[in-house]
Amino acid sequence: MSVDNKRMVLSILVDNTSGVLSRVAGLFSRRGYNIDSLTVGETEHPDISRMTVVARGEDSVLEQITKQLSKLEDVKEIVELERDTSVCRELVLVKVAAGIAERTELNTIANIFRANVVDVSSEIMMMEMTGTISKIDAFIKLLDGFEIKELVRTGITGLTRGSDSIAD
């Protein structure tokens, strides 16, 4: 990542209607901006969804992204989730080849990272873990010596700390 590029995490409240995701993603693709991570889910209000979008770029590009998003009719509110004033997490599910010999070591790694073993078969162990990007990266790095069969990450989601709410 260049010195001028920074990561921005946006929490965006949008109408929970068909086509909203397409319009938001389309805004990025039309302007040649990359989305590092995108999560979407219904909020405590069924008619509102929260999108968490992670993008990287120079300050001017990130400012332009925010301005363009705010022009979309479906977008109700945008807040940047800054590192010191928010909590951001990601979920990973990983299937690892695990015979009897590997299970003890995999369980030890899972315990260190507070990962949960969610499925075991005679040949596979599946673990889930929630945490920061750096914690998940470290967890995956420790699994390098094992045969990872499948891995999926949800992307970042987050909220501002304290009693402040994006909808206030």
Describe this structure in words.
The chain is of the alpha+beta class and 168 residues long. The protein folds into 2 domains: 6-80, Alpha-Beta Plaits; 87-157, ACT-like. Chain A, domain 2 (Alpha-Beta Plaits). Helix content is 27%, strand content 40%. The strands form 2 sheets. Strands 5, 6, 7, 8 and 9 form a 5-stranded antiparallel beta sheet that branches. Strand 2 (37-42) and strand 3 form a beta hairpin. It is elongated. The mean pLDDT is 92.
What is this structure, in a nutshell?
By secondary structure, the chain is α+β, with helices and mostly antiparallel strands. The protein has helices at residues 20-30, 59-70, 100-112, 133-142, and strands at residues 6-15, 37-42, 48-57, 75-80, 86-97, 116-120, 124-131, 148-153, 157-160. The chain is elongated and about 55 Å long.
Topology of this structure?
Elements: E1 6-15, H1 20-30, E2 37-42, E3 48-57, H2 59-70, E4 75-80, E5 86-97, H3 100-112, E6 116-120, E7 124-131, H4 133-142, E8 148-153, E9 157-160
Antiparallel strand pairs: 1-3, 1-4, 2-3, 5-7, 5-8, 5-9, 6-7
